[in-house]
Specification:
The chain is of the alpha+beta class. 25% of the residues lie in helices and 29% in strands. Strand 6 and strand 7 form a beta hairpin.
Length: 249
């Protein structure tokens, strides 16, 4: 990418300085910023390296789903970090969601809601998604790629999508969002009591019936990031899978 390529008027060098990062790689078009981030991670890129694309052709979500990321309509980015706490890695997606929600609140018409394990919602519609991918070597964590997609403008032909307030500038969001993501990556341990309280306040699903990963009532999450679902006579805990709410109730 030419050095003078701009993202909303700023070059990669200017964004690097503005965001106080070791490196920002700007891509006009890519398959997924996660792919580019893993390439940089394998080249020993420093923690805090950020990849931003104006358009992704194969942005990805959980379980092989595709994240629609049209040109100029949102923030499609991946942050490379090198954490050393396995316990924190277990809850990194949830912690990232919490901190991203705080950063995005001021650009949204209402407080951002969260849906386990990695979705951001606003006004009952999906605003963004988080995907964490780790790379290991000989049992040691080498880096994590923290992928985030946020609709800044309402995308065409994407039903049930949400967007930030009209007139929101992507660079302005980046200034608040990037420190939030770095803070999540730098935190240690499982979720704290205060984080659990905040999650409960933002939890889109808490108290609602679900059909996946089990039929029951969503009770929230555990400190280690498990989804808690109340069954007829017990509380089931789920570390993986998708949460599907029962829309018939």
């Amino acid at each position: 990418m030419p050095d003078d390529y701009c993202f909303d008027g700023l070059t990669a060098r200017e964004l690097t300085e503005l965001l106080d990062l070791p490196l920002v790689e700007l891509l006009e078009r890519t398959t997924s910023t996660l792919d580019a981030a893993h390439r940089l991670g394998g080249e020993n890129a420093a923690a805090g390296t950020l990849v931003i694309a104006d358009h992704q052709t194969s942005g990805r979500g959980r379980s092989g789903s595709q994240w629609i990321s049209p040109r100029g309509s949102g923030l499609w980015l991946t942050l490379v970090e090198r954490p050393d706490d396995a316990a924190a890695l277990e809850v990194l997606s949830l912690r990232t969601g919490l901190r991203a929600a705080r950063a995005l609140d001021r650009f949204a018409p209402e407080p951002i809601r969260l849906k386990w394990p990695n979705d951001l919602y606003c006004e009952g519609r999906k605003l963004g998604g988080i995907l964490i991918e780790a790379r290991w070597r000989e049992g040691k964590l080498e880096w994590v790629a923290i992928g985030l997609g946020v609709n800044v403008c309402l995308p065409d032909d994407v039903p049930l999508a949400a967007a930030l307030d009209s007139g929101t500038q992507r660079v302005e969001v980046l200034v608040d969002l990037v420190p939030a993501l770095r803070g999540a990556a730098g935190a240690h341990g499982h979720l704290t009591e205060l984080e659990l309280i905040e999650w409960n306040a933002r939890d889109l699903a808490r108290g609602h019936a679900c059909v996946e990963p089990a039929r029951g009532i969503v009770e929230g999450i555990s400190p280690s990031g498990e989804l808690l679902v109340a069954l007829a006579d017990s509380i089931a805990r789920f570390r993986s899978g998708s949460l599907v709410l029962d829309i018939t109730t």
